[in-house]
Amino acid sequence: MGGDPPSPFEEQFAFSRLTVAGDWVMVGGTTSVDQYGFVQGQTPYEQAAEVMRKIGHELGRAGAELKDVVQARVYVTDVSRAAEVGRAWADAMGDVRPLMTMVEVSALIDPRMLVEIEAVAYRPGG
After folding, report:
1. Ramachandran assignment for 42, one of left (phi > 0), alpha (psi -120 to 50 degrees), beta (any other)
2. Where residue 17 sits, what CATH number does that domain have?
3. pLDDT digits (tens, 9 = 90+) for 59-104
4. Do residues 70 and 44 lie in contact, with contact meaning Cβ atoms separated by under 8 Å?
5. Is 41 helix (H, G, I), strand (E, B) or coil?
């Protein structure tokens, strides 16, 4: 399934942001870029908050919610600002406590991007 709206990279690189396999819903690497290629948010917090909004939207298209997330990987370009990303994550997730790995990477596909997140959710009977 393509994203809604699609990432400007989905067609070019032949991938889907959302995949459903039985009870599992996987949201691939999601950044704050909009369908026109504009990065939303200037800070890691702002970008991560937008990413979490987009992930919640994508999960909803597959009948899942953020509370169904069991694992996530967070890629940041500056780990010294991890607290900002973590705060956006916590704001979106509330009391849900899935596995989460955060790692620093040298760069994302666009130098304006500071955060990329992928998530795996489990929705029994989905």
Report:
1. alpha
2. 3.30.1330.40
3. 999 999 999 999 999 999 999 999 999 999 999 999 999 999 999 9
4. no
5. coil
